[in-house]
Amino acid sequence: MKKTIILAASAALLFPVVLSSCKSKAATEEAPASETAVLAVSTECYGDETTEAEFPVDEEGYIVIFDGSSLNGWRGYGKDHVPDRWSIEDSCMHFVRGEGEGGDIMFAHKFDNFDVQFEWKVSEGANSGFFYLGEEAQSPEGNLEYLCMSAPEYQILDNANHPDAKLGIDGNRQSASLYDMIPAKPQNSKPWGEWNTARVTVKDGKVTHYQNGEVVLEYELWTPEWTERLQNCKFSEEAWPAAFALLNNKHAGHMAFQDHGDEVWYRNVRVKEL
To answer: What's the farthest any 2 CA atoms get from each other in the chain?
Structure first.
């Protein structure tokens, strides 16, 4: 029997499990039951989550939103398609340098409370990032805002060879850091070309970053302390008022990987709603 979990377009709601029999009794006896999740996704910028997409659920109950075989549910930030510089190579989501259409790639379902895990590696000197709780926000003039204006960033970086690792304060631009705000400690990333594991949990505004199996930072969103952190970084009300307002606004949002112009690979992306 194949179990299908229906998840609502509002990411905070979980509908009852819907069971649908699609195998014969003999086939069921030959193979274990499989479980899938159906997520409502948006297929165009600013669009509602009205299209259903199906994803496998692993033995630990995580929804596998990238399994190495398909970009189902993904699209470019502010786009209705996947930019061609994002492709699948050796079961990895791969961003390639060079000509062609780029841009950040996002999963087109909004999550509220979640536990997301993935693996990443970068080329020598590369920079990228993982965004969460992102919105396709518009400026007063109706233009699409930058994703980093609404989404906290888990930094992805070759610490040894990219100059950003030495900028910021106390290493807060190194890998797994909350970019430009909180440094990841201990700093345990692996060299370029090697795989790292990443994990981010968000529960009622409480956020934890993990890198290679260790907790490296914790903080709480939408609190006076959060506002103070914003005021002391590039997203301050004076330096970037639109970003300050968006990042101070409590919201569910999208997960995304950044196009920073450098070659990077991601794999085994899975998420569980909390």
So the answer is: 67
Please tell me the chain's helix, strand, coil percentages from 3-state DSSP, rounded to the nearest 5: 10, 40, 50
Start-to-end CA distance of the chain, whole Å, equals 25
Nearest-Å Rg of the Cα atoms of the chain is: 19
Rounded Cα distance between 175 and 187, Å, is 8
Give the pLDDT of the chain (274 residues) as one tens digit per residue: 444 555 544 333 332 333 333 333 333 344 445 799 999 999 999 999 999 999 999 999 999 999 999 999 999 999 999 999 999 999 999 999 988 999 999 999 999 999 999 999 999 999 999 999 999 999 999 999 999 999 999 999 999 999 999 999 999 999 999 999 999 999 999 999 999 999 999 999 999 999 999 999 999 999 999 999 999 999 999 999 999 999 999 999 999 999 999 999 999 999 999 9
The domain covering 62-273 belongs, at the CATH homologous superfamily level, to Exo-inulinase; domain 1 (2.60.120.560)
A 10 A CB-CB count for 113 gives 16
Alpha carbon distance 274, 111 (integer Å): 10
Model pTM? 0.89
CA–CA dist 36, 74 (Å, integer): 17
Please check whether residue 47 is in contact with residue 77, taking contact to mean a CB–CB distance below 8 angstroms.
Answer: no
Contacts of 199 (CB under 8 A, 6+ apart): 115, 116, 117, 208, 209, 210
CA–CA separation, 171 and 159 (whole Å): 10
CA–CA separation, 244 and 150 (whole Å): 8
* CB-CB neighbours of 107 under 10 Å: 24
> How do 35-41 and 2-7 pair as beta strands?
parallel
